[in-house]
Each structure stands twice: as C-alpha cells, then as structure tokens.
C-alpha cells in the first residue's frame, strides 16, 4: 500500500460534539458518523465485486464485536473491532471491518482514530491479530499480519506507515521478489516476510515447485521501515497456515492421479473442447501433431428444445485433464455433449474416444471452479501466496483459453486478454462450478 493510501485509510474526519461525547462513554456505541468510506481505498476495494462499479456498495451501520486492551509506555490502548453492515438494521454483514483505537484516560477512553480493516489479501478472510509495541519513542500498532499499514500513535491521533514499503530493499532477483505476496510483519520481532517466486503468468510452470521466503530484519527510521538485513530461506511446514492448508487441499485432489509418462506435468481438473470442426477434435497417441490419431472428442452439439436448461448455445464435449506437456493436454474420460447431464446422445453422431490421449492446447476451454479461493483472481504463479490481479469481466465467466496446467492449477487467458493462474477449472456448462 502506498503511503498516501495509508494516510487516507483511517477515514478520520471531524466529529460532531454529540459523537465526541458518545466516544467518552463507557458503552462505546459503534458509529460510522463522520467517516468518508467512499473515499477510503481499503473499504471500496473490499466491497466492490469484480466487474462492478467502485462505490456501488456502502455501509449503513456498524456493530462492535470485540475489544482488546494493550499496556504500553504506562498507558492503556484499547482496540475495538466492529463489523460493517450494508443495511440500517444490521442484518447484512459486509466483508470488511473497522478498528477504533482509544487511549484509556481517567476521564474515560479518548478516540485516536477509526481504521478500515479489509479482508486478508491471501484468502479474503477477516483476520484481526493486533500488536502494540514501542520502538524508540514511537508507539506502533499492527492490526493484522498482512494489513498494508502500520499506525504510529501520538497525542494528536494516528499516522499511517507503509507496512511493506521495505520489500524492494530485499537483495534478491527482482523477478523473484515481485511475484510473491506480502506474508507478514511482526512488530515484536521487527521482522517482515514476503513470498519469493518467479512470475509465470505468461508461461507454463509447476505448482509442485517449492516457494521460498524473503525474511527482513527491520528498523524504524524517519517514520518508515527499512531493511537492516535480509535473507532468503526455504519454506517449511508451519511457516504459513494458509499455504499449508492449500497444499493439503491440492494434495487431496491428486490422490487418484493416474501414473503418467515421464516428463508429463500432473493435472487434476475438467475442461471442454472448443474445436468447432464437425469431424471432432483429434485425440493423439503422443503430444505431437504428427502422432497417430486414436479417436476424437465429438464436436459441439445444439440440444433439442426440450433441454431448455442448455439454452441456444451449442453444448460441448467434456473430459478430464490429467497431464500437460509442450502445449498439449493429456485427457481421459471423454463425455459426448449433454451426456454428463443425462441427455441421450444420438447413435448417428461421432463417438468419443474411450481411452486417454493428447489434444492440442489451443482447443481447450473451461470455467472457474470454486476451490476456496476468491473468484476473479488471476495469480502470477500457481501458488496461493503469489500476487494476483482481478478479471475485468464476471468472476465466474468461462475462460477464453486454457494455456497449461499443473496440479489443481490452470493457466488461463481471460476474456480481456489477461493471463494468469487459477486454482480449479471445471467443465460444468449448466450451473456455476463448485
């Protein structure tokens, strides 16, 4: 997060005398009065779904859910966590929260500021894990390990510091440094961590490659974090729960993976044929246009009107993808158009090949599957801790092309030409994949 964004992120505004009086009360009623949430980048990003206009959703109420007290420099700081709601009745909770920081004084708690806390950038879950420490003459507050700002306290209120502005100072190949997500900042240890990996959004890669961690020992200088020393270490189980959970999930998808020829990247997903040739898509014995043709994937078929769930668009043949090599996909379990949905397949139409074989990579399509990661993300590498960007179209729209695969991940091209990796591809043509 840029420093300017950090400064905006407080959503601090002049409060009315009535609101100030409420903030001095022991009850601490939650209020969003005086907060310009429409100008807060953390709030707007958190509540704006992919493809929708920014600012279309706004909070109408808030409700306190927990608080924590922290003793530092002879004073008590109280952090109150609240939920935002999109309705005045506080029934529809939003995936974004607020933290108010107060200094507890003899006359009562005094508010230093209110901060928007967005969901965790790795898994989109809400995560409130505060730290309050004193570094030199500065009291620092961290709200969550991967939140983009650290807050410096003074009698006048809060000042935002970029939590990860130091990452460019880690001495490592920029191609490895820039593709990984921010992993954590720990104010007690004054240590920051980022994921180290190569940007493979435009080329095939392997989800089985182990990622590393860039570890920086930090110092505070002139209200900013700098790297005192850094090193790159191998990732170990237990370093990051999110990454461990992802590995467990992806390993489960590969339990029944068949034995594959040497040099084939294992994959586990379903897809469909985009080939409109009425003769069907050739299935070959090897990943080569010169290899023997074993059979075909049937061409798309317009379904009879009684199958109105399919609509007017042709239904495509579906199959499992079990491997990838050199621009070719190894597929199996080919299903003729409509058959997975109990629609009879006419005997006079071309029959699908019964075994497994290779099909050209430029003939494959699929839709995103829900696998626990947020829809709409295109990752720079097949790892949950890779950086990502969002699709500009609908988050569950089919992809224009599937370019390669590895494990549970597919490298895709979206409708806007953007390329990246997604975890989970499926061939369901009737409902959203799950």
Characterize the structure shown:
- The protein has 434 residues and is mainly beta.
- Among the domains are: 129 residues; 162 residues, no CATH class.
- It contains 5 helices and 26 strands.
- The strands form 8 sheets. A 5-stranded antiparallel sheet has the order 18-17-16-13-19, with no helix packed on it. A 4-stranded antiparallel sheet has the order 1-2-3-4.
- The radius of gyration is 26 Å and the shape is elongated.
- The N terminus is likely disordered.
Draw up the topology in text:
Blueprint: H1 3-8, H2 17-24, H3 41-47, E1 61-72, E2 75-85, E3 93-105, E4 108-117, E5 131-135, E6 138-142, E7 149-154, E8 157-162, H4 174-177, E9 182-186, E10 191-196, E11 212-221, E12 224-234, H5 241-253, E13 265-273, E14 281-284, E15 293-297, E16 318-325, E17 328-335, E18 357-360, E19 364-365, E20 367-368, E21 377-379, E22 388-390, E23 401-406, E24 409-413, E25 419-423, E26 425-426
Mean pLDDT: 88
How far the N terminus sits from the C terminus, by CA atoms, comes to 32 Å
Question: Which stretches are low in confidence, meaning pLDDT under 50 for 5 or more residues running?
Answer: 1-26
Strand sequence of the main sheet, in spatial order? 18-17-16-13-19
Number of strands: 26
In helices, the fraction of residues equals under 10%
The biggest beta sheet reads: 5 strands, antiparallel
Total of DSSP H or I helical runs spanning 4+ residues: 5
Classification by helices and strands: mainly beta
- What spatial form do the alpha-carbon principal axes imply? elongated
CA radius of gyration is 26 Å
| β-sheet strand percentage | 35-45%
